[in-house]
């Protein structure tokens, strides 16, 4: 670990991020292994004998409750307030003067990895977390660096990180900054200095590949954190730690473990009855809470958004059927004890990676003439839910995007009615939404006065097919060091290319009425995968997008009022805050984790920055040079057709989550078609020897030998040759 004060560069610049891209930009995963002690306060952590009394970052429940009136310009928590409405009361920037916004300051962070985090602003200090969990405290008005902290996450952790070397945020509470690291640690830093106060290992089983990419939440004297790794074969849980000491307060498991062992708590005994047949505990189970955890001060409740099953396919995971609790569900637990109060399962027997970890928003809303305290969520499955958060009663469930897997949600039973016409147990099927969902972790914003939710959506289908090995043998075995999603992934590119007219993805920014189910307005974006939004009381909606633009739109109709170019894709949320009477608009840029062909990262590369705008700003952001995307002449292609087929399968199982389906990468992650002769000469040393381990490209020697490594390289060469020939033919036609 390393703490720096004053100006300094990022100590690690990653070249390779582990990301999941499945069919037309659908995320999947890879993993490796790291052994470490079980959960404990690590003996080598820099823990002062007597931690200094906090002097900065003094956020508590009372202050968060007053932020709407006393501190309208602060951004104290992940969702601005505990209700996570992400709506700002600031009005200095309005529809009349939004065109006068200009860049005030920016800061480069020197990494190619995707930036998806929400910065916090407390007492004029911006706290921001970057890939590798490197954390900064910056002057929110000038960008001056106050301190930075590097937890020194091992580079090989990237191989087992779902969706990249990323972090979606941090928490500030009672004078501490809480950082959850990719390798599974939770660290408390002194908010004034960045000095570590305590550190715990949250991972319960280091023989499985747990990571953390979500933001911790802090409230009720505790810090709440979940984990990721369902596709790697892990079991989900959420842990609450004492905010002052790091001692464990409680832990809630989201899926049952080995039924021959004692149940950890009564809810697991109930859940086990909904898992039938198979050995899900060996395959994994899943149910990781990798994103949304929301504290409700009205009911002293913590809501857990639970993820997909492991593997995705229910017939493999639980061949006897069952709802498989608490997969794809919202679970309400007591903040002090972790005891469950209620649950609502959005997708019983999940079969499509339809996580319910997307952001949850709390509000007071009149429903059918009765004022209700509600929870709202737009999970992956394409239905927008309004739930009474006092008891979990379903009030509304309207589709907010294209949905083909189900016809509707029955409000009497609370269950979706599945469309059996698109079952993929016998034949591959394009299904809406795909594994990316109709909406994912990108932030949404609730305008209570209008009764409208603003969010980014994507109509991105996915080609679901049963894995070839299961179709042949009826058996599926968890594979160490490889993805375990229970669908056909090795031949995914072959399946797509064999399809006559594969459906194309589309992306939108929408204003949605959760009670009526009406789309008030929708703006189609140039690319399907864009950043989160924030609305303001001045009638503005701010958002960054995949084309590198930061925009202000009217909340009346979505019309564009202002736009600035950052020259790199944006997938993280935009926030707005105020310091010394000036309103600022800020976003984190950089997106190297997804197939963004045609987007800004493909043209200019990924550039991790925070960019900050205000009225009258006149700073300039340097325009980067365009990337050279010319495919050079390749080494000799010597492989047989059978070897190329084997290389195709291995590439897509092991390499495509980083480097793209069909060897078409994003612009942030290296595109292997562009390898130089020098890189080709060291290919084996990189893949098997781990020479780029510190950058995140760990060795694959545990799953590959020399011959299979050569087959992958030959497949890459074949794809480069094909695309180079197409480029040359296109150039000749243009010159013709």
* Tally of DSSP helical segments: 11
> Order of strands across the biggest sheet?
1-7-6-5-4
Q: How many E-type strands?
A: 40
Mean pLDDT: 90
Question: Which regions contain 5 or more consecutive residues with pLDDT less than 50?
Answer: 6-45
Shape designation: globular
As a whole number of angstroms, the C-alpha radius of gyration is: 24 Å
Question: Which structural class do the helices and strands define?
Answer: alpha+beta
Question: Descriptors for this entry?
Answer:
28% strand, 13% helix, alpha+beta, 736 residues, 5-stranded mixed sheet, single chain, 40 strands, 5-stranded antiparallel sheet
Q: Could you walk me through the main structural features you see in this protein, from its secondary elements to its overall organization?
A:
The structure is a single chain. The protein is built from 11 helices and 40 strands. A 5-stranded antiparallel sheet has the order 1-7-6-5-4, with no helix packed on it. A 5-stranded mixed sheet has the order 2-34-35-36-37, with no helix packed on it. Helix 8 (641-659) crosses helix 11 (706-735). The longest helix has 30 residues, at 706-735. With 736 residues, the protein is of the alpha+beta class. The radius of gyration is 24 Å and the shape is globular. The termini are far apart.
């Amino acid at each position: 670990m390393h703490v720096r004060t004053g100006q300094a560069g990022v100590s690690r610049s990653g070249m390779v991020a582990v990301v999941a891209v499945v069919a037309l930009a659908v995320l999947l995963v890879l993993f490796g292994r790291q052994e470490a002690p079980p959960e404990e306060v690590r003996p080598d952590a820099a823990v002062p004998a007597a931690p200094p009394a906090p002097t900065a970052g003094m956020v508590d429940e009372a202050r968060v409750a007053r932020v709407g009136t006393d501190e309208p310009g602060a951004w104290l928590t992940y969702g601005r307030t505990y209700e996570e409405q992400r709506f700002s009361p600031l009005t200095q920037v309005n529809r009349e003067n939004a065109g006068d916004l200009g860049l005030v300051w920016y800061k480069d962070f020197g990494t190619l990895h995707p930036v998806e985090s929400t910065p916090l602003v407390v007492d004029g200090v911006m706290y921001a977390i970057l890939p590798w969990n490197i954390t900064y405290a910056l002057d929110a008005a000038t960008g001056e660096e106050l301190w930075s902290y590097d937890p020194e996450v091992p580079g090989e952790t990237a191989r087992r990180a779902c969706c990249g070397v990323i972090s979606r945020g941090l928490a500030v509470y009672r004078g501490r900054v809480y950082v959850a690291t990719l390798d599974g640690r939770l660290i408390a830093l002194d908010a004034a200095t960045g000095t570590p106060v305590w550190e715990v290992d949250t991972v319960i089983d280091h023989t499985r590949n747990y990571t953390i990419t979500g933001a911790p939440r802090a409230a009720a004297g505790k810090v709440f954190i979940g984990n990721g790794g369902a596709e790697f074969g892990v079991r989900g849980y959420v842990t609450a730690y004492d905010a002052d000491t790091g001692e464990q307060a409680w832990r809630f498991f989201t899926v049952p473990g080995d039924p021959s062992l004692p149940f950890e708590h009564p809810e697991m005994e109930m859940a086990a009855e909904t898992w039938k047949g198979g050995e899900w505990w060996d395959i994994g189970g899943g149910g990781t809470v990798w994103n949304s955890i929301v504290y409700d001060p009205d009911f002293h409740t913590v809501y857990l958004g639970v993820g997909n099953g492991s593997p995705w396919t229910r017939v493999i995971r639980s061949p006897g059927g069952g709802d498989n609790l608490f997969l794809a569900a919202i679970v309400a637990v007591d903040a002090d004890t972790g005891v469950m109060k209620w649950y609502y399962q959005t997708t019983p027997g999940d079969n499509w990676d339809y996580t319910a970890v997307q952001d949850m928003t709390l509000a007071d809303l009149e429903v059918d003439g009765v004022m209700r305290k509600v929870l709202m969520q737009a999970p992956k499955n394409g239905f927008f839910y309004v739930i009474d958060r006092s008891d979990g009663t379903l009030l509304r469930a309207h589709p907010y995007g294209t949905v083909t897997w189900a016809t509707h949600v029955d409000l009497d039973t609370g269950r979706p009615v599945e469309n059996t016409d698109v079952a993929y147990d016998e034949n591959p099927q394009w299904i809406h939404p795909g594994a990316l969902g109709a909406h994912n972790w990108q932030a949404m914003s609730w305008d209570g006065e209008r009764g409208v939710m603003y969010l980014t959506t994507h109509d991105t289908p996915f080609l679901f097919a049963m894995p070839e090995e299961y179709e042949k043998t009826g058996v599926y075995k968890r594979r160490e060091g490889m993805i375990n999603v229970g669908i056909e992934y090795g031949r995914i590119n072959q399946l797509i290319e064999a399809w006559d007219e594969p459906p194309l993805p589309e992306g939108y920014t929408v204003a949605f009425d959760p009670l009526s189910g009406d789309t008030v307005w929708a703006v189609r974006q140039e690319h399907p995968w864009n950043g989160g939004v924030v609305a303001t009381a001045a009638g503005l909606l701010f958002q960054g997008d995949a084309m590198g633009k930061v925009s202000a739109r009217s909340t009346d109709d979505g019309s564009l009022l202002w736009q600035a170019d950052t020259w790199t894709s944006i997938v993280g949320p935009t926030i707005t805050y105020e310091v010394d009477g000036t309103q600022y608009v800020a976003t984190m840029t950089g997106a190297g984790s997804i197939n963004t062909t045609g987007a800004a990262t493909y043209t200019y590369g990924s550039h991790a920055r925070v960019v900050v705008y205000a009225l009258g700003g006149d700073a300039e952001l340097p325009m980067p040079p365009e990337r050279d995307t010319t495919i050079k002449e390749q080494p000799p292609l010597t492989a047989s057709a059978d070897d190329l087929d084997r290389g195709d399968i291995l590439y897509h199982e092991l390499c495509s989550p980083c480097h793209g389906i069909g060897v078409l990468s994003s612009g942030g992650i290296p595109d292997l078609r562009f390898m130089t002769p020098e890189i080709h000469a060291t290919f084996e040393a990189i893949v098997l020897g781990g020479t780029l381990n510190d950058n995140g490209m760990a060795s694959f020697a545990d799953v590959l030998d020399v011959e299979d490594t050569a087959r992958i390289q030959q497949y890459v060469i074949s794809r480069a040759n094909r695309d180079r020939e197409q480029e040359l033919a296109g150039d000749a036609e243009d010159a013709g």
